[in-house]
Amino acid sequence: MRLASFKPTWMIQSIYNISPDKLQQHGIDTILTDLDNTLIPWNHAGSNRDILHWVRLLQQYGINVIVISNNNPKRVRRAVADLGLPFVARAFKPMNIGIKRTLKRFSLRKDQVVMVGDQLLTDVWAANNCGIASIWVRPLVKTDLLPTRVNRRLETIVYWQLKKRYPELGWKGDID
Ligand SMILES: [Mg+2]
C-alpha cells in the first residue's frame, strides 16, 4: 500500500468553504460528496439552512452535487430528500466501485469531478483508487459512527506520515 494513495489533492476546513468559482478555475463541474460528517453531521436526520444555501449557490454556478455514501439507502435518501440531490448509497469506499458507477451513470469525466469527504481511509483513498481529485474536510462533529472511530486512529497515523513526506500539506480556508 502506497502512502500516496491517501494524499488528498486539497485539505479544506469545511465543505461549506469550497467556492464554486475556484472549482471552475480547476475545470471541475461536479462535486461527489460523502454524506455523514461531510455534508451533514452523522447524527442529524436531514439538512439545514447552511447546507441548503451552499448547495443552491453551487447550482447557480452550474456545479452538480452528487452524494456518494457508504451508508444505507434509507438513511441517505432521507438525509438528502429536501436538497433534491442524486445519490449513490452503499458505495463501498475505499473501493472505487461506487465512484466508478456514479461516473458512468451520470456520464462524467474523471478530470471534471472532485470527491469531498471527511475520511482519508474511505473518501480520499477511494478517490485516489479511481484517479480523481479529492478534498479532505474536517468532520462536522467530533463524534463518529462506531466503525469510523477505529479508522480515525489509523487516519491520525497516516496523516502524520503524509505530513512527513509532504510538508506542504495543511488545512486551508479554500481551494487555491
Ligand atoms: Mg463521512
UniProtKB/TrEMBL annotation:
Cross-referenced Pfam families: Hydrolase_like
Top-level division of the source organism's lineage: Bacteria
Species of origin: Fructilactobacillus florum 8D
Single GO molecular function: phosphatidylglycerophosphatase activity
Protein name (record): Hydrolase, HAD subfamily IIIA
Keywords, sorted A to Z: Hydrolase
